[in-house]
What we know:
44% of the residues lie in helices and 15% in strands. With 350 residues, it is of the alpha/beta class. The chain starts with 10 loop residues before the first helix and ends in a 5-residue tail after the last strand. It has 14 helices and twelve strands. The strands form two sheets. Strands 2-1-3-4-5-11 form a six-stranded parallel beta sheet, with helices on both faces.
Amino acid sequence: MHTFRGSRPTLEAVAAHAGVSRATVSRVVNGGAGVRAEVREKVRHSVEELGYVPNNAARTLVTRRTGAVAVIIAEPESRVFADPFFAQQLRGISRELAEHDTQLLLMMLEREKDYQRIGRYLSAGHVDGALMFSLHGDDPLPSVAYRTGLPAVFGGRPGWPGAEEDPGLLYVDTDNRNGARQAVAHLQERGRRTIAVINGPLDQTSALDRLHGYCDALGIGVHEADPSLVAQGDFTAEGGERAMARLLDSAPHLDAVFAGNDLMASGALRTLRARGRRVPRDVAVVGYDDLEPAAWAEPPLTTVRQDVEGMGEMMARLLLRRIGLAEEASDAAPPAPVVTPATLVVRESS
């Protein structure tokens, strides 16, 4: 048995140990086809025995792949690390990429100049593709991705002009409009008649779709909504707290509120407690996401569940298929956008 103290085993050393050609070892190490199972097993045994580690820089020259994917969140760092939504989505992405020996490179947007920095990085060929989410209406990220020519998958239904007609566009979303419709219909079934809404930023399609769902349940158009019952939040607990205070000032008789995410709902609960309103006796509250803190709220929060972690996995899986790193059946349909269902979870806040 060969030992290589203080030196790194080479591809040639593995070939000699396994009794095969260097080209055969290269095909096995790089996942190539055309090697018999018993030969492949012999090479893998030699790789393990010698402690051979592939030279990724050299492999990149051959395969034109880096083994890395950029995950770009169009939010500042303070928001990303404060919102459990992003942690769950990243968990799903990370798990799927790890299954395919692909590294995750996290990038966030704090300032305008970050777009140029990210564009330069993507154009330099450091990653094989990009996953982008939390995009706002006029976000330049999609055009940055298109200019680089990198495969990309988006989190959330794209809202820029022409997106829906682009046959190559890939995204993963949940049925936000129907989820909001379920939430408000539930409040109506509980006998609530003056139902307010706390919106997320309306330059994001998820927030806009949830507002449309709220109006659908009330049987009105978006422009017919009572302005005293509509307050703008920013998908944060503090935003929900402030929005709830504005709603109580403008419509003190309200008896229910639908918040566009669980963080804003938790802020609404804080304001209602501070104003002496009992939940759900005086005001019923429904959120959206069903992240872990929803069940810990006081009272436990009725909310709309979306599979955030599963959506992250699907985003990564679509990108890996587009890049050609994920195995799939020969008759598999081409990658296509995915919209997952939303489900109401009833707890004590309504």
